[in-house]
Write a structure and sequence with these properties.
The structure is a homotrimer of 136-residue chains.
Chain A: E1 5-6, E2 22-25, E3 28-34, H1 53-70, E4 78-85, H2 91-103, E5 113-118, E6 127-134
Chain lengths: 136, 136, 136
């Protein structure tokens, strides 16, 4: 029997396809690609936190964090964050937001590794992030 | 000594460079990026299952599955699927195909997490998928 | 207490944001996205090994290797390499360089799985590679 469990925070909608927002199996936790959607409201379509990189980056990080927490993990357990941006011109601002966000997280362990690449995303979305964590 | 083993299903060609189609080490199994190539025929170049998203998506999923099986894993063990599309306009159709495919797989565990991004692929290829699995 | 450790080879600059060049926790090692920067020189900005795919690919692989080594791992432990190129026209040459590089590494285990996709990267950079390793 598998002990693989789906992680679905109350803030998240049911996934729009046959995937999980996050899964944990043993001490491995994988967070699916998150975007800057606000907490789900029943009967309403997913809505980005706002049109700006600032709003979407902070909401995306919060959405990743919610899934980690649902699986009993924290930022300290994260090994890798994959950051997908749509514009190389957003790199400096994303880093500023990223640094400020993590400065407030009271990390006890070294920060995760990270890869940032520039891809296409659905219209209106400026950032997507997924995460791989290894729990103690 | 490492117990890392290469996973090369009989349906697959020898990789075109110094990589493995899949590797397993301990309970971790990684599937390399798969595309919609039909089962290899000796002496012939790799050939996509067809020009359509439908044909390529179903063949790509089957190619991922074959590597999982070669390593003693099934879809139930998959933690993460990374889906690379070339066109945001393909998202809805890919999700329909994805959902229908997994509805037929008789999953016993929650579905894997997933990230979908839009990138460039070699001419004629519309989708690429890789997978990370954790076995029991 | 977490045993997660940051991997920062002496050849690498301090990361430009709140991430680690690599992290190891237990037997899992993740290398952040590496590009073809030459070994860091104090007081100077990061400088690519050269403008060509050859120069950048070989330096990028060396930068990945340095982080693996810092964490007590080698190429034999690598499960997955993600290769990000900017131009599909670079695939054949990258494969030649990749094959030649690994032919010289005296691998004892099967090569890692790999996914190659085509994305945007900061101006002047032609390749980025990250790696997931599982140690014995």
């Amino acid at each position: 029997m598998s002990d693989k469990t789906a992680l679905t925070p109350s803030t998240h909608t049911t996934p729009p396809a046959a995937f999980s927002h996050g899964v944990r199996k043993g001490n491995i936790l994988q967070v699916a690609g998150q975007v800057g959607f606000l907490p789900a409201v029943e009967g309403q379509p997913p809505t980005p936190a706002g049109p700006t990189l600032r709003e979407q980056t902070l909401q995306t990080l919060e959405n990743v964090r919610a899934i980690l927490a649902e699986g009993g993990a924290s930022w300290d357990d994260v090994m890798m964050l994959r950051v997908y941006l749509t514009d190389t011109g957003h790199f400096a601002e994303m880093n500023e937001l990223y640094n400020a966000y993590f400065a407030e997280q009271d990390l006890q362990a070294p920060p995760a590794a990270r890869t940032t690449v520039y891809v296409g995303l659905p219209a209106g979305l400026l950032i997507e992030i997924d995460a791989l964590a290894v729990l103690d």
